[in-house]
Design goal:
CATH architecture: 4-Layer Sandwich
CATH class: Alpha Beta
Helix content: 10-25%
Strand content: over 45%
Radius of gyration: 19 Å
Shape: globular
CATH topology: Double-stranded beta-helix
Number of helices: 4
CATH superfamily: Mitochondrial biogenesis AIM24
Distance between the termini: 53 Å
């Protein structure tokens, strides 16, 4: 299949050109346009338990599969928030962990599951689960989205990379992380910075330039409040 990402990084659109019989799996609601394909909606695979874990990770229990008909087909996909789309090739045995709600699509041979963060997730201010993507057979590809633009950062051996929890998009399975804060308690309360993830290892982390939770915090004070009796 041929994939094209257009209009990045602000309003990115992923277009997939499919050969006859080829398929792409996508999150419900991601389809913008299509022709020459058949769409089927089903569970994300792996049975009820894996589906529930996907929901806990911020994703839908269901997934749409677009399969090209005899003459080939095309489907265009986009995330619900204005931002970028990234692609990551998955080799056999490799995992990519994606923050909740950042998964967009994947090739047919890629499976999705959720990885529990443990008590670190409670203190991070984010989801208790990350979405784990991996190729069940052969080489696969996964597409993820962001709010704002995406930037790839390297995690180098012996060095620590610090990322605000609200700006994380994805990370490879050859890094580990812990939850902490920047500065002391005074910085946490009055410095405008929340909790952070501290990465170690030899891999990569993807961040987004905007924070959806911060946007919500600025908008909420201006929303009308219901009067008594409504």
């Amino acid at each position: 299949m041929k994939t094209t990402i257009e209009f990045d990084p602000s309003y990115a659109l992923l277009t997939v050109d499919l050969e006859p019989g080829e398929s792409i799996k996508a999150e419900p609601g991601a389809m913008v346009a299509q022709h020459g394909v058949e769409m089927k909606t089903g569970s994300a695979g792996g049975g009820l338990f894996r589906g529930i874990r996907r929901m806990l990770g911020g994703e839908s229990f269901f997934i749409n599969t677009f399969t090209a008909e005899r003459g080939g087909g095309m489907v265009s996909l986009a995330p619900s928030t204005p931002g970028d789309i990234g692609a990551f090739p998955l080799e056999p045995g490799q995992n990519l962990f994606i923050q909740g709600s950042s998964f967009l699509a994947c090739t047919e041979n890629v499976a999705t599951d959720s990885q529990f963060q443990g008590f670190r997730g409670i203190f991070s201010g984010e989801s208790l689960f990350f979405l784990r993507t991996y190729a069940e057979r052969g080489r696969g590809e996964v597409f993820y989205n962001s709010y704002g633009a995406i930037k790839q950062l390297a995690v180098e051996p012996g060095k620590e990379l610090v990322v605000d929890t609200g700006h994380l998009v994805a990370f490879t399975d050859d890094v580990s992380y812990s939850i902490g804060k920047v500065g002391g308690l005074r910085s946490l309360i009055g410095g405008g910075e929340g909790l952070v993830m501290k990465f170690q290892g030899d891999g990569h982390v993807w961040i987004q330039t905007r924070n959806l939770a911060s946007l919500a915090d600025k908008i909420i004070p201006f929303l009308p409040t219901p009067t008594r009796g409504e």
